[in-house]
């Protein structure tokens, strides 16, 4: 057997890559288009609940063709009380493989990848589904993927007004301050959900609840808005889907089953089904189905997180690391 080497990028390496907003968005949009064209295999995520803490592991698996050609598995822990230990809520590892012969190709710290790719999917969803003139963002949630949601959305829309809210004042105030410094514009930390999302052009709900609770009220959603609810535990009313002109998901296979997810109750009650689903985002990115067609459409996009996005961004990071000499090469066999 010939020698096998794997590339290794730790958290410091990932930070040193300094992936630009454009590089992140391009990698994820490429993967979504490949998925839409049927050049990918994705299996619904599975969960492992250790039962010893307030959290669980997600295991995501997929194989991506097109210009990327890689298979991958990501394991990510989602432990909501980690802030008490000064740890991120999500810690993850991504493994990449040759999809033709199974050789391991790389191991990457995927905590940053998880945040970046989730924000990129939110932003690309808005690119195709939000009104072009959207200028007000209301974002619920201040941890994990929240930063990249706001940053990448703003890179596309250059908002006039950004509002953020989370349960703990120190969390939302610190989040708003960091965003304001990085984006170079004011960011308002609101004291309640309504003042954050009412009348916003784009609404993102990325809360971290212990149990489902309908805190985001349907009546607060502006006609013509683009709404992205994706908390692990649902924070929306059942009536939210009733006002939508289009319902879009990232992958129907993983959205229609499982225990967790913002619209789990909507699937179980038939409000979101194959009959009511407009499209998967990849089909829209690939040009196979229309995105937003009128300014007065109110559109919802539910994304659960795609292994294909992890694979695509990991692949882009490896390529940049090779160009810049960042990362380590390890002997596997």
From TrEMBL:
InterPro entries: NAD(P)-bd_dom_sf, ODC_Mu_crystall, ODC_N. GO terms for cellular component: cytoplasm. Gene3D superfamilies: NAD(P)-binding Rossmann-like Domain, ornithine cyclodeaminase, domain 1. It comes from the Bacteria. PANTHER family: KETIMINE REDUCTASE MU-CRYSTALLIN. Belongs to the ornithine cyclodeaminase/mu-crystallin family. This is Ornithine cyclodeaminase. It comes from Prosthecodimorpha hirschii.
């Amino acid at each position: 057997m010939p020698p096998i080497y794997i590339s290794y990028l730790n958290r410091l390496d990932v930070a040193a890559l300094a992936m630009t907003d454009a590089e992140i968005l391009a990698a994820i949009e490429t993967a979504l288009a490949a998925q839409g064209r049927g050049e990918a295999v994705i299996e619904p995520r599975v969960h492992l609940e250790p039962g010893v803490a307030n959290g669980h592991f997600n295991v995501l698996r997929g194989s991506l063709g097109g210009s990327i050609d890689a298979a991958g598995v990501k394991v990510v822990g989602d432990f909501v009380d980690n802030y008490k230990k000064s740890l991120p809520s999500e810690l993850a590892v991504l493994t990449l493989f040759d999809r033709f012969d199974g050789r391991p190709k790389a191991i990457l710290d995927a905590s940053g990848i998880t945040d970046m790719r989730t924000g990129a999917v939110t932003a690309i969803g808005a690119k195709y589904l939000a009104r072009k003139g959207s200028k007000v963002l209301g974002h619920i949630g201040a941890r994990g993927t929240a930063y990249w949601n706001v940053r990448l959305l703003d890179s596309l829309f250059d908002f006039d007004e950004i509002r953020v809210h989370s349960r703990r004042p120190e969390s939302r105030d610190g989040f708003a301050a960091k965003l304001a410094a990085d984006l170079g514009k004011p960011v308002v930390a609101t004291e309640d959900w309504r003042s954050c999302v009412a009348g916003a052009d784009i609404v993102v709900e990325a809360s971290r609840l212990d149990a489902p609770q309908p805190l985001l009220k349907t009546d607060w959603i502006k006609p013509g808005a683009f709404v992205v609810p994706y908390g692990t535990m649902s924070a929306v009313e059942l009536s939210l889907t009733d006002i939508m002109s289009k319902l879009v998901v990232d992958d129907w296979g993983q959205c229609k089953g499982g225990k967790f997810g913002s619209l789990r109750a909507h699937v179980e009650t038939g409000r979101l089904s194959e009959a009511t689903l407009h499209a998967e985002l990849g089909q829209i990115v690939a040009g196979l189905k229309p995105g937003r067609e009128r300014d007065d459409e109110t559109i919802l996009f539910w994304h659960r997180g795609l292994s294909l996005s992890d694979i695509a961004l990991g692949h882009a990071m490896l390529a940049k690391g090779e160009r810049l000499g960042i990362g380590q090469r390890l002997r596997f066999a």
